[in-house]
């Protein structure tokens, strides 16, 4: 590290003073381009990056990343840690620094000595039928020693009798993926992988059944050696009964022989028989009526070391402002789509930016952090531990978080989930990049054909989905209040009913599966790389942060209208007024519009760097104002009053919707209605705080 000397060369004394106030000391290598306090997005650099992102290199990245199974904490997972470190410290294309951060976390694995099993047994204990313990080895990649057998992580061990136990209460759970949900109803071997992209009959979806995210033993604390750990008897969030996933080939044998009344229409599937509820087997079926299903689960918990890998490009002007771009590294088996398609894109983008950096032709205004998270599949563990360890630093300094997990589900269109302030930067990026495939549409114009909404401000625009807890953005938005987004390419919903790509979390999610069925030619991977790269450069290099806080007004107005229409009359019956909420929304709208006008004024002139910095901090910190760690005491890590889980049916502020749903027909003055009033107050205070953050910084 070399301390900067002579920073004021070429700058006036006033600009130097402003920079000194903002930055203090920071390190910039000698081969960096000249530094200017007004450094802004360089469109030539942006065009260079867009042109150099190479589909064939992304393809080769994916081939290497998915070559072997890499379950969290496995030897191959550790080998990929070293691969990332090697790439990010490469003399010709590496970053400023790269480091692995290791945590000791509680993971769950099936027993190698006692495999989990599901058997139909007769009254004498004789085995009449056994479900497969592994998937069929169709391509030579499903049978290796490193392929973890299908299991439900964190499900407890046990041996319940699963069918006839229904009349006594559920004792165990079998989980399968129905071809009606994943395969558009197709189930024959010649209709499925390796002959198409559909899940073969023996395919089993692995997964974590832990209710929360983060290391189970160290909630709200990083899983470092010195951290306090819960006793296992005090850990919550694990399934209470043994659970085991099976393939639909085996599920058909069990379901199509069940006795009892018909299951509801919504429960029927595509296995070629009527689904019944039991108990017991049908007298004319394949098994005697008194047969049982034995489910033997031998999972065990184990402390394992799991690493995050961070690669950093230090900012030239604002190194203490971070733009984060991350994806997890671990997979259930080969994980070509999930997650390696995202990591393949991340590595190509970091190579291009690292090469420009090493040549001395570019350095971003703000710092860029690339992250490879560990143990995501077990419950977003790596990213959560990172946010716990660096909570204050990240909250104070992070501009935005971009997540690219599965970069390509399929190759029809862009799909984005995110908070409203990131909408404008994504739109700007998507409008400038050509969509893959025939024709000359931009990614934006293609996107709007598949996902769109009518905005009162902009008219017809692409629609962004909201962020739940499906990937590593969760701790950033829900716990830290950092504006976040998740970018991917996906399928045409009019052509498939699949809830996700069919080989999800199975041993059939391989490189050849992607290469042949998901994205031949890798043009959609390249499109995601260009979109993500453009967003990262705009966030890290633009003088004014491209976060449009006024875009929150659409969401707030929509939530308010839903509350008025669906809950207003009920609330009035209990003497609860929505007027404070109406006023709070109006205050926010006015403050956001005024800040937008102020920004426009600054952009037309030659603003002082300190003015820009203060404005950018208002944009960056807005998302934090919606956090209230006491709003949802029953939830872990969920603090964002706009995006917490909503169990109520009304599409409004989640705390208000949930409280009204629980209050239901309870009597006036009950604790349930007091909670409704509390949740309403929480939202009002959050919105008033948000408006105050957007008003001139000298005002309260």
From TrEMBL:
Domain Peptidase M28, residue spans: 308-516
Membrane topology value: Single-pass type II membrane protein
CDD domains: M28_PSMA_like
Keywords associated with the record: Aminopeptidase, Calcium, Disulfide bond, Glycoprotein, Hydrolase, Metal-binding, Metalloprotease, Protease, Signal-anchor, Transmembrane, Zinc
Classification via Gene3D superfamilies: 3.50.30.30, Transferrin receptor-like, dimerisation domain, Zn peptidases
InterPro entries, sorted: PA_dom_sf (IPR046450), Peptidase_M28 (IPR007484), Peptidase_M28B (IPR039373), TFR-like_dimer_dom (IPR007365), TFR-like_dimer_dom_sf (IPR036757)
KW Transmembrane (keyword) present: yes
Requisite cofactors: Zn(2+)
UniProt GO cellular component terms: apical plasma membrane
Molecular functions per Gene Ontology: aminopeptidase activity; carboxypeptidase activity; metal ion binding; metallopeptidase activity
One Gene Ontology term from the biological process aspect of the record: proteolysis
Transferrin receptor-like dimerisation domain: residues covered: 576-695
Source domain of life: Eukaryota
Record bears the keyword Repeat: no
Compartments, record wording: Apical cell membrane
Pfam families with a match to the protein in the record: Peptidase_M28, TFR_dimer
Biological function: Aminopeptidase with broad substrate specificity. Has lower activity with substrates that have Asp or Glu in the P2' position, or Pro in the P3' position. Lacks activity with substrates that have both Pro in the P3' position and Asp or Glu in the P2' position. Lacks carboxypeptidase activity. Lacks dipeptidyl-peptidase IV type activity.
Family: Belongs to the peptidase M28 family. M28B subfamily.
Protein name in UniProt: Aminopeptidase NAALADL1
Gene: NAALADL1
